[in-house]
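Let us work through a complete example step by step.
Step 1: write down the sequence.
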Amino acid sequence: MTRLYAATSNPGKLRDFEAAAGAAAAVPDTAHIIIEPLPGLNDLAAPPEDEPTFAANARLKAVYYSRFAPGEIVIADDSGLEVDALDGEPGVRSARYAADTGFQVEGATTDETNNLLLLRNLAGVPAGRRQGRYRCVIAAARDGACLCKGEGTVEGEILTEPRGTGGFGYDPLFYIPSLGKTMAEIDLGTKHRISHRGHALRALLGKMGLG
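Step 2: predict the structure and record it as tokens.
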């Protein structure tokens, strides 16, 4: 059995990680993997996520948090949405997209506010020019040293209104043409199979000899 500690308190990310670990465990001749939240994470000061790329931010977080779990492997991801018509925005600032600009909507959650800002910025952009992708990089570290990284992407289109109640972040707006559904309309198993986070975690586990 291999235990990995995830440096995130985001319940959506934890569900994705746990689903990926469960799928890996079902494959014959692969290690049994358990992914759990890093103990005491909420009591730790978060490092600044000020690097310009997903890979650099993921590495920074994994290295930082691994120092609080001696001898253990800690994984951390940085992920987000890149929209071609917005020159790659929101990119590494996806989680803080609205906060960066001061855009606010009374009574709306952070995810809802980010989605509303995205729709506002894409107003007038026609179908066929609303392509984008989810990108994710996951880094693994032990005792302050980065071991390896895995990267994954999934291509899609941005709708003009949300669909679905599953997922988190921009999932209700992220439409996957091959499935005819948004990321918020698919089940967790399908999401792991096709998502950026699923691809990144499989790539990471492969590099670690666990997948």
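Step 3: interpret the result. The chain has a mean pLDDT of 91.
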